[in-house]
Amino acid sequence: MRPPYLLLDIDGVLIPFPDGHGSTPATHARHDVVPAGRSADNPVTVWLNPDHGRLLMDVIRTGLVTPVWCTSWRQDATTLIGPLLGLPTLPYVDLPRPEITTSHPNGYLWKRDHVDAWLGDAPAVWIDDDFTGLDHAWAAERTAKGAPTLLVQPDPNHGLWPGHLTELTTWVSQLPAARAT
Ligand SMILES: [Mg+2]
Known about the structure:
Blueprint: E1 5-8, E2 29-33, E3 44-48, H1 50-61, E4 66-69, H2 75-84, H3 112-119, E5 124-127, H4 133-144, E6 149-152, H5 162-173, H6 176-180
Parallel strand pairs: 1-4, 1-5, 5-6
Antiparallel strand pairs: 2-3
This protein binds magnesium ion.
Magnesium ion binds near residues 11 and 12.
Protein name: Secreted protein
Pfam family, one: HAD_SAK_2
């Protein structure tokens, strides 16, 4: 079995959402970035935790997963966000741009149908803050069909914690293929 893909979301995972008081964790540093298609005098402010780059690199270097951005930042994840965290150029899932007013237009994460087709029968770890119960059922169904699937769901106000990556590496290292190599 190939190494599982590691699908990485950004908003609510690497960029926490402000809490009710409009503040972000003290661990995060402010950056102003200009996404593709946006005017340079109209940047977007993002908050990133420099530790996340190191933690993700520790996982990537194991070779146990194949990292891929899976975020509405699309290519900007690779060109803007990744470099700010010291990450190498990673591929990204070129998500569609549906006209939606909720992230769960059909009761589950809007990215999922595209990701499902993109993955085929490949195993995957997917870190996103926005799964519903239907997404967790989807993951269980994939796993039952022989495509092991782990969903890791950070709290969007806190974002990624080291324990999420420990959960990921523990899960991956227990897959049959990982044990065999
Ligand atoms: Mg998100």
